[in-house]
Write a structure and sequence with these properties.
Elements: H1 14-17, H2 21-39, H3 45-51, E1 61-73, E2 76-89, H4 95-100, H5 102-119, E3 122-123, E4 126-127, H6 130-145, E5 150-160
Antiparallel strand pairs: 1-2, 2-5, 3-4
Helix pairs in contact: 5-6
């Protein structure tokens, strides 16, 4: 016996005729959501429901891929650590614009991190002054998109590499 496929619910086949038109449409949406989530396409579509007030939904966000941050000691790079930055977007309608600007955002965040090293906000790979680093990233984001587009900046140290020796 053959298993049911999503296409079975979209046609006039025997399984599809077992459901009313509204139920068929709902099943088709569920099948489409399943296919899209497997393909990774849904990451931008789900946060839009958060802006519409869906209970328990996460706000839309943009992930800046992990950045390599040098651990500097006495003017020398000892090793590297990785930092990931996520930006929560206040207006789901601006999500596409922000996603298209990820290369510029990557550069702005990396610039802020290197400024943080120079200013002493990042000491031996540890972020000693997170509020100052967030403010610096926020200044860059406001300059790019205007105020209130990015509502929250999440900074996560994720890995360390051993020394370069």
């Amino acid at each position: 016996m053959r298993s049911l496929q999503p296409a079975d619910f979209l046609s006039n086949s025997t399984p599809a005729r077992c459901f009313s038109g509204a139920a068929r449409a709902a099943l088709a949406r569920v099948a489409l959501v399943g296919v899209l989530s497997l393909a990774g396409v849904l990451t931008a579509a789900l946060p839009a429901s958060a802006a519409e007030g869906a209970p328990g939904a996460l706000p839309p966000s943009v992930r800046i891929k992990p950045l390599m941050v040098p651990v500097v000691n006495a003017g020398r790079i000892e090793k590297y650590t990785q930092v990931e930055v996520n930006l929560e977007i206040g207006d789901a309608l601006r999500l596409g614009e922000v996603q298209l600007s990820i290369p510029r955002l990557h550069d702005a965040v990396l610039t802020a991190i290197y400024k943080g090293i120079d200013e002493g906000w990042i000491v031996r790979g540890n972020i000693a002054n997170v509020p100052a680093l967030r403010r610096r990233i926020d200044e860059s984001v406001v300059a790019m998109f205007g105020k209130d587009v990015v509502t929250r900046i999440l900074i996560t140290p994720i890995a360390r590499q051993s020394s370069l020796q």
